[in-house]
Amino acid sequence: MDRSPVITHLAWGEMEVEGLAPGKDFVLYPGGGKPWDWNEYGTRHDPGIRPEDVRQLMERGCTVVVLSRGMDRRLKTMPETLLVLREAGVAVHVEETREAVRLYNRLAGADEAVGGLFHSTC
């Protein structure tokens, strides 16, 4: 199993992830990650993270998913998104971004098949 990359730096509007170019928002999974383009699935602060956003994590073999709420907790998660994860047997954690990063890094360091969606501003 590929290891999930560790987030090495987080500040307002900026993140650094091992093996990736610096950016603002990220989709991370075992073996890598990419910038999180909210326009890909029409994601907005409200109604929030969409089922399509997390399906890409499930397709990469994630058994645990960490969803960030933003630094000011403005990013919501659609109830349907949580349902998709739970029905697939994927453990899910929804946390403020700093806490989400701490939890994700701990799980990545424990070689869990962890993925996450990280929003580094509001």
From TrEMBL:
<protein>
    <recommendedName>
        <fullName>Dinitrogenase iron-molybdenum cofactor biosynthesis domain-containing protein</fullName>
    </recommendedName>
</protein>
<dbReference type="InterPro" id="IPR007523">
    <property type="entry name" value="NDUFAF3/AAMDC"/>
</dbReference>
<dbReference type="InterPro" id="IPR036748">
    <property type="entry name" value="MTH938-like_sf"/>
</dbReference>
<dbReference type="InterPro" id="IPR034096">
    <property type="entry name" value="AAMDC"/>
</dbReference>
<dbReference type="Pfam" id="PF04430">
    <property type="entry name" value="DUF498"/>
</dbReference>
